[in-house]
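Help needed: design a sequence for this.
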């Protein structure tokens, strides 16, 4: 599943291509995605309007258009492609926007876990976005915030960080990598972490997400950025996907456990606490 760095990479690639482009027509070829695509609303509201900008909230892309906002989520394997004129549709192309300049924006989603939604209200108040935690790069995501949110929580710190109501974007990959960088065991209770732990964790999360964005995201089986190229952050992973291999820092064997149904790798020597 594309995580925050992958979505931000896509946003940065699409923003200069889509901003201020006038929509000529819209095609909805299949609307039964994770949430039903509002076909009639999209066909009525979008043609003749201009995409003002391309924003992001968590793993959602937000495109203000006319009197509303289009909300896009890529789900497990969705890909947004910016295409030249007359490129034929392929299997699993479910949604297409044709622009006046001849280009197209097309969503391909084999598993149909993605979403294309429309709202005429403040998108920040949409039911999918309203309860999300702070963006990791903002001042709202601070050591003090993390410390206060973790008080009394009897849940593993790894699961706590993966909760999008606590902070958006950590996900499975980046929480594992951040905990390694902060030298914190993923099984440790969130309620037991100290202010110093929170300082290290917040710094580590910002560091890992920033590094991944700079390298175009993490190379996963289904992920491609907006021009079809894979990300390269996987070359920099310390523990994720490396169970049974030697730690790059201390040479101890990377172990893997399951937390909340997800595989979680860590170094038993570097992450003792």
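Sure. Designed sequence:
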């Amino acid at each position: 599943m594309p995580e925050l760095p992958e979505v931000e990479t896509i946003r940065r690639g699409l923003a200069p291509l889509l901003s201020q482009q006038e929509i000529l027509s819209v095609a909805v070829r299949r609307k039964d995605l994770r949430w039903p695509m509002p076909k009639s609303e999209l066909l009525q509201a979008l043609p003749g309007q201009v995409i003002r900008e391309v924003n992001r909230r968590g793993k959602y892309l937000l495109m203000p258009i006319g009197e509303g906002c289009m909300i896009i989520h890529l789900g497990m394997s969705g890909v947004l492609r910016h295409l030249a004129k007359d490129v034929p549709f392929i299997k699993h192309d479910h949604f297409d926007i044709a622009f006046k300049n001849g280009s197209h924006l097309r969503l391909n989603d084999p598993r149909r876990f993605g979403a294309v939604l429309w709202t005429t209200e403040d998108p920040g108040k949409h039911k999918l976005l309203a309860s999300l935690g702070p963006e990791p790069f903002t001042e709202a995501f601070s050591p003090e915030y993390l410390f206060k949110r973790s008080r009394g929580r009897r849940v593993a710190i790894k699961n706590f960080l993966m909760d999008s109501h606590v902070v958006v974007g950590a996900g499975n990959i980046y929480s594992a990598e951040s905990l390694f960088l902060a030298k914190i065991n993923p099984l440790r209770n969130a309620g037991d972490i100290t202010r110093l732990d929170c300082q290290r964790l917040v710094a580590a999360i910002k560091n890992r997400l920033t590094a991944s964005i700079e390298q175009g995201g993490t190379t996963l089986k289904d992920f491609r950025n907006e021009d079809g190229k894979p990300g390269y952050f996987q070359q920099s992973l310390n523990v994720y996907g490396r169970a049974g291999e030697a730690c790059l820092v201390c040479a101890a064997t990377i172990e893997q456990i399951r937390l909340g149904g997800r595989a979680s790798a860590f170094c038993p020597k570097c992450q003792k606490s």
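The two ends are 30 Å apart (CA to CA).
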